Amino acid sequence: GTGGEGSEGEGAGLGSSDSGGSGFSLAASALPERRRPGGGRPRYEVVRELGAEEVRWFYREDRKTWKPFIGYDSLRIELAFRALGSGGGAGEPAAVEPVCVRSGLYEVDVASAESYPVYWNQTEKIPVMRGQWFIDGTWQPLEEEESNLIEQEHLNRFKGQQLQESFDMEISKPVDGKEAIHSLKLSRNHVDWHSVDEVYLYSDATTSKIARTVTQKLGFSKASSSGTRLHRGYVEEATLEDKPPQTSHIVFVVHGIGQKMDQGRIIKNTAMMRDTARKVEEKYFSNLATHVEFLPVEWRSKLTLDGDTVDSITPDKVRGLRDMLNSSAMDIMYYTSPLYRDELVKGLQQELNRLYSLFCSRNPEFEEKGGKVSIVSHSLGCVITYDIMTGWNPVRLYEQLLQKEEEELEESWMSYEERRLLEELYITKQRLREIEERLHELKASTISKPPVLKFKVENFFCMGSPLAVFLALRGIRPGTSGSQDHILPRTICNRLLNIFHPTDPVAYRLEPLILKHYSNISPVQIHWYNTANPLPYEHMKPSFLNPSKEATSAPEPESASAAPSPTTSPVMVRRHYGESITNIGKASILGAASIGKGLGGMLFSRFGRSSATPQTMETGKDGPEGEEKKVGTVGTPPLPHSSSGFLEPTVELEHRIDFELREGLVESRYWSAVTSHTAYWSSLDIALFLLTFMYKQDQEETDKSNLDTM
């Protein structure tokens, strides 16, 4: 049998006495299906009404099997249920507050026996059920109506009777030859009591009756041939100690704009990410007393945008492919449209602030204890989140353009009249700017402007992100310092991390926008989930990219004479696998993002640069734990690198930003180019990667305290 979610709490429950645990451990080892905290005897010596700790509440999502609430949740739901049943005095039911369950993400309305999420909207309510009688082996509850009838009959017939003295009651003794001492007829089944604690359920369907008759004639007993053993009270007592850990870090999960097709998709995706992270937490971070909570930011459904105009103009042929393009390329066109951009930014900003305020109001200790906030954004959600954090606006770009035009105009030849008018215009603009500033100062003194976001972002994780293309088309060019501040100041966000699948056609690298020579350095490989003792990411040294073996052009002899430095070397030609299919994604993104910026922006591409010098390389093999590739150049003087084969550039990034998932061993590159953009949510590798960075400080503090203790 299973203990469900509540397998951790072993404290004494309500109504159970605290006697020595030595007898229990022996009994439990022989009988793994029945675990009872606090003593080696049954809960009660005589049959009486079930205690609140013996009842277990369950919930069911997506019409799957019933899942048990953990002890802490179940006990509180049961107490609310009993308060509801006690009534409010004048024959009216008592008003009972909803019970907060499942780490505070859901509430249970006991009166309607339904559960619903706190932080997002969900059309389907989640049914909850009170379990009193359970099926042997699976510990699934009997349906509530049948359970109530059996419980009522059991109490009427056996209340006050003596139970057996030990765990013998749990051993399924044969009931051959024993006649039922009591029976109860239900609508489709009947229940036989062979003794006070030997209860069997039988189906009354015709086929079951025939099978029962045949087997009994062959000499088998009725119970052993077709009966289902029932247990009264759950396998494990509910205790208040069996509660979830405190949330120390919340993660807002932001979708791209393609949610119109399926509004609940981000909720499902976040649930996948949360479930995957729970598995990783149990395996790698169970020693920490806190945990990370993931909250979906579903902001798209509240916006009207174009209504259904784009859907109505989409042809029906190859609809699946068109829908995929509508949810990626169309997103970018929405965002570059001056008509809809502000609506999108405000929609996301308001939802982030609403969720944070709601979480803090329900968890007042979160801010007091220095709780942290991270954001995981997918696809175009990365660009919108970035623009909210930095306050970037296209108006700023327009002002820069006007200023540039003014400078060019001043340098050109003009008549006396033109120059006089230009000076007048310049003085008027200067005066206008001064008035605007004074007005702004007056407003600022009376109304303090609230911050754009109500929280500081600890980590900003981009997944499958086209952010680099947008920044390049806004004029950001590589600098000379290896600081993240070049694209995202540390005062706004402590750490920026860009995660992508190698065949994701929508994802681009960010590091070459900070230091140009990083286009020749491979992204950091994300460890596989089951890697034993992986090298910490901060200890991984940068290594050269490995151009594909199919590059046919050998380096020209004369080009070997000039040895380029790592900071000034031209970007190498990199023929990518799946080039034709990734060009579809590249063309749609660049085409949409460069609207109004001319064709010049189209030249920015990671897939091919005609001016680059081809260089052939020979690759070292990956180590057992997938360490970075060690590469040496052939035919040209080597770039500065150490004897280990790793690159040692003159300037390095303070922190690595680009992290690449490892490709599966059997997946088709062309097929994964289609599927990889949405394959991040259920990846155990990504869940471990996210938690590694979010738990970093907690892990270091725990390790330090362990060392101090030693």
UniProtKB/TrEMBL annotation:
<feature type="region of interest" description="Disordered">
    <location>
        <begin position="610"/>
        <end position="646"/>
    </location>
</feature>
<feature type="compositionally biased region" description="Basic and acidic residues">
    <location>
        <begin position="619"/>
        <end position="631"/>
    </location>
</feature>
<feature type="region of interest" description="Disordered">
    <location>
        <begin position="1"/>
        <end position="42"/>
    </location>
</feature>
<feature type="region of interest" description="Disordered">
    <location>
        <begin position="541"/>
        <end position="571"/>
    </location>
</feature>
<dbReference type="GO" id="GO:0004620">
    <property type="term" value="F:phospholipase activity"/>
</dbReference>
<feature type="compositionally biased region" description="Gly residues">
    <location>
        <begin position="1"/>
        <end position="23"/>
    </location>
</feature>
<dbReference type="GO" id="GO:0046872">
    <property type="term" value="F:metal ion binding"/>
</dbReference>
<feature type="compositionally biased region" description="Basic and acidic residues">
    <location>
        <begin position="32"/>
        <end position="42"/>
    </location>
</feature>
<feature type="domain" description="DDHD">
    <location>
        <begin position="453"/>
        <end position="696"/>
    </location>
</feature>
<protein>
    <submittedName>
        <fullName>DDHD1 Phospholipase</fullName>
    </submittedName>
</protein>
<dbReference type="Pfam" id="PF02862">
    <property type="entry name" value="DDHD"/>
</dbReference>
<feature type="compositionally biased region" description="Low complexity">
    <location>
        <begin position="550"/>
        <end position="570"/>
    </location>
</feature>
<dbReference type="InterPro" id="IPR058055">
    <property type="entry name" value="PA-PLA1"/>
</dbReference>
<dbReference type="GO" id="GO:0005737">
    <property type="term" value="C:cytoplasm"/>
</dbReference>
<comment type="similarity">
    <text>Belongs to the PA-PLA1 family.</text>
</comment>
<dbReference type="InterPro" id="IPR004177">
    <property type="entry name" value="DDHD_dom"/>
</dbReference>
